[in-house]
Specification:
Oligomer: single chain
CATH class: Alpha Beta
CATH topology: Chorismate synthase, AroC fold
CATH superfamily: Chorismate synthase AroC
Distance between the termini: 32 Å
Helix content: 25-40%
Shape: globular
Radius of gyration: 21 Å
Number of helices: 8
Structural class: alpha+beta
Number of domains: 1
Strand content: 15-25%
Largest sheet: 5 strands, antiparallel
Length: 361
């Protein structure tokens, strides 16, 4: 089930970059949740291509249709079918590359696995596959917000050599994140990031970056011991996204430079309960949420498809030169922000339902 994610809140994604459409089937969403396309569309609009000078010029409205699973604006508890049609696909852009695997792309590995591949747009390895995830994640997010008061906000915290100040303890909103086209609330650093990306695009190259995400409001107790720890499921979700190469939670790799006396999160009384005075654990201890904000970061590599001339070989092993055509993002992180939020919502919704099933009388 390589295209299915989740245990109780399950999502099956379908579609390729240049086929008729892409989408998802959501199974396990609780009944009687108010849901219309208007609840889903805002995140798809944030994810869609053609938003600014630092994203791909492909023009897609990415309007979602709910095909099943609702009636009179309420979920039925049955599978919810979601579809977004592809309208601006140009498979002809890839004709000259059909026999040359793009360096660091999935052309070669897909061909070796299946003996065939979608020769235009990357097929299932394209970022358009994430449309189904974002649509499904919007449903999960609404359930989490209305049932538990969970709030999920991600932003771009790094591009190339430029890193924003730590914003993880600030009460950021998505509207604040969206004030810059790079989706970095540190405005001064955002300008440098945008300049770096524009320079890379002008030279036919691409840039990588980092997205930070904070999930607030998750109660203590979500997550399963051992294999399905909260951070393990988040890592699974994030590293399943196209172009991801790293995941860290809380103090992450920086924590390896600290002593235990510095890194431990002391417990204190908070709001008639118990919390911690610091949050190096990133809201998770023993794989289970402790009630503090969940804080994690995801590393995205530079997009593999670039227009610079590259020396490579074709599928027969003959020397070749490739100067990729088509429309591609010079950096994916600004459009990855709603995708990261959506995958976080899917993880939290699934583990929330698993905990709910455990505690029901």
């Amino acid at each position: 089930m390589s295209s299915t994610f989740g245990t109780l809140f399950r999502v099956h994604s379908f579609g390729e970059s240049h086929c008729y459409g892409v989408g998802a089937v959501v199974d396990g969403c609780p009944p009687r949740l108010a849901l219309t396309e208007g609840d889903i569309q805002p995140q798809l609009t944030r994810r869609r291509p053609g938003q600014s000078a630092i994203s791909t010029p492909r023009k897609e409205e990415d309007q979602v249709m709910i095909l099943s699973g609702t009636e009179h604006g309420l979920t039925l508890g049955t599978p919810i079918g979601l579809l977004v049609r592809n309208k601006d696909q140009r498979p002809g852009d890839y004709k000259d590359m059909s026999n040359i695997p793009r360096p660091s792309h999935a052309d070669y590995s897909y061909q070796m696995k299946y003996g065939i591949r979608a020769s235009s747009g990357g097929g299932r390895s394209s970022a358009r596959e994430t449309i189904g995830r974002v649509a499904a994640g919007a449903i999960a997010e609404k359930y989490l917000r209305e049932t538990y008061g969970v709030d999920i906000v991600a932003w771009v915290s790094g591009v190339g050599p430029h890193t924003a100040r730590d914003l993880s303890t600030e009460p950021l909103t998505r509207s604040q994140v969206d004030e810059t086209i790079i989706r970095c609330p540190d405005v001064e650093i955002a300008a440098r990031m945008e300049e770096e990306i524009m320079a890379a695009r002008a030279s036919g190259d691409s840039m990588g970056g980092v997205v930070t995400c904070v999930c607030r409001g998750a109660p203590a107790g979500w997550g399963e011991p051992v294999f399905d720890k909260m951070e393990a499921m988040l890592a699974h979700a994030m590293l399943s996204l196209p172009a991801t190469k790293g995941f860290e939670i809380g103090s992450g790799f920086t924590g390896t430079t600290m002593k235990g006396s510095q890194h431990n999160d002391p417990f204190v009384r908070k709001d008639k309960g118990i919390g911690t005075s610091t949050n190096y654990s990133g809201g998770i201890q023993g794989g289970i949420t402790n009630g503090e904000p969940i804080v994690f970061r995801v590393a995205f590599k530079p997009p593999a498809t670039i227009s610079k001339l590259q020396k490579t070989v074709d599928f027969e092993g003959n020397d070749a030169e490739l100067e990729a055509a088509g429309r591609h993002d010079p950096c994916v992180v600004n459009r990855a922000v709603p995708i990261v939020e959506s995958m976080a919502a899917l993880v939290l919704a699934d583990l929330a339902l698993r905990q709910r099933a455990r505690t029901l009388p």
